[in-house]
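BUG: 3D viewer hangs when loading the predicted structure for this chain

Environment: internal workstation, default settings.
Expected: structure renders.
Actual: progress bar stalls at 90%.

Input used:
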Amino acid sequence: MEVVLIFLVGGMFSAGFYLLLQRRLAQLIVGLGLLTNATNLLVFTVARLSREGAPLIRTGSDQLPESVSDPTPQALVLTAIVIGFGVLAFFITLAYRAYKQIGSDNLEQMVSTDLLDADDDPDDELQGELQSGAAD
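Structure tokens produced before the viewer hung:
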């Protein structure tokens, strides 16, 4: 089973890196998701997969039995899944905002985003209203 997962992780890493090198923002987001999942599977594979029993230390012993897998990497992967989901949600929101501002998801067209007119930004209008209300 580990051999199959090794090839799966390798394929996911290569596809993720390939998508990260593309010019479209949507492909970059999918590549980031693939890399996150590939890393989680890699940690699971390295930690040894087993269905022998619960990872409990028996009375009088100082270590886990050989036939069970270590629960620490499983807890780390659970945390990594939550953090990865948060990063992907932030990146999707950022990509949507960039697409809305520029009108394209091509990364080469996003080079000139610093030169955009500030009058189109709705946040500036809100700050102007807040400042005029504070001056009254």
